[in-house]
Amino acid sequence: MKHRKEPPGDKNIIGVRVVAIRKAKGMKQKEFLARLQTVGLDISPTSLSRLEGQYRLVQDYEVVAIAKALDVSVRELLGEESE
User: Fold this and answer.
1) d(C-alpha 1, C-alpha 70), whole Å
2) CA distances from 45 to 20, 32, 33, 76, 80 (A)
3) What kind and span of H or E run contains 71?
4) For residue 67, how many C-alpha atoms fall within 13 Å in the half-sphere facing its CB?
5) Cα(38)–Cα(78) distance, integer angstroms
6) Which of 47, 48, 50, 56 has the most neighbouring CB atoms within 10 Å?
7) Which residues, including other chains, have CB under 8 Å from residue 19's CB and lie 6 or more apart?
8) Among 27, 30, 32, 29, CA closest to 68
9) Which residues does the UniProt record annotate as the domain HTH cro/C1-type (predicted)?
10) Cα–Cα distance between 59 and 74 in angstroms, integer?
């Protein structure tokens, strides 16, 4: 597994939560990308990596799709309620 060389960015607040939830569910990025496609969000592996590293802005519709693909609430994804 490759580790990031740079510290997290500041473009979004959900990137680290996406990684934590995805890993807690035993999901690899490739599987997560496939789940995102099934809920109507088609993003590239590079784009997902940048999102998770907080180097990419996240659109509101993407937050909804990501929460759905991870099977969590938007509030949980935003860190507003415990898992």
Assistant:
1) 21
2) 17, 10, 7, 23, 27
3) none
4) 18
5) 22
6) 48
7) 52
8) 32
9) 18-77
10) 13
